[in-house]
Amino acid sequence: MKIYFIRHGETDWNVENKIQGSNDIELNENGVSQAIALGEKIKALGYPIHKIYTSPQKRAKKTAKLLSKAIDVEYEITHGLEEMNLGRWEGFTWKEVKEEDSEIYNSWYSERNTKKTPDGESYEDVLSRSLAAVQSILKNESKDIAIVSHGAVIKCLLCHVNNVPFDQMDQFRTGNTSITIIEASQLS
Fold first, then answer.
1. What is the pLDDT of residues 21-78, one digit of tens each?
2. Catalytic residue among 8, 82, 121, 150
């Protein structure tokens, strides 16, 4: 059984390089087009997706809804798949955070495997809740599924599967509506 992890379509904050995190940002026009194209691509490739699970955040939910319509399978909102909560840094660019909150940023960055962002989560927190959500989904599934989620969630899960520390997660960078295929047995 395969899991097709899909990052949501583009938002205005993606374009502006703003940290979205737990903010519930909508897809922009290009993001909607990307999600429609994603559905056409998955249909053309013949991926046998039986069901779609999605983060409850608007950008992921809309991507899942458009994919669902294109490939004619239902989607289900699943808590635990939300983007990393980056606390008070949300709404800023990483450049702004590095400049305006440099001491705290540097401390977090050097220990980001385990350290929480100010008023937010750590990567370990994200892995713990997202892995639990995926494992809960897998208890009820035996056919290929898609999971629409977010960049940090997918990178944390890929670090887990590949036994890579979080400080090396940039090798798993995902673009909007990218598809990452993982064997379900690697996450169960």
1. 999 999 999 999 999 999 999 999 999 999 999 999 999 999 999 999 999 999 999 9
2. 8
> For residue 91, what is the domain's CATH number?
3.40.50.1240
Do 154 and 180 meet the contact criterion of CB atoms below 8 Å apart? yes
- State which amino acid sits at residue 51: K
Backbone angles phi, psi at 55, to 5 degrees: -60, 150
Query: Which residues form the domain of 171?
Result: 2-186
Instruction: Assess whether 79 carries a catalytic annotation.
Output: no
> In the chain, how many domains are there?
1
* Active-site residue identified among 83, 90, 121, 150: 83
* pTM confidence score: 0.96
Six token digits for residue 185: 């047995």
Q: Could you tell me if 133 and 157 are in contact, meaning their C-beta atoms sit under 8 angstroms apart?
A: no
Query: Which residues touch 156 (CB under 8 Å, ≥6 apart)?
Result: 84, 123, 126, 127, 130, 166, 169
Beta bridge partners of 149: 7
Nearest one of 120, 127, 132 to 159, comparing CA atoms:
127
Asked if 83 is an active-site residue, the reply is yes
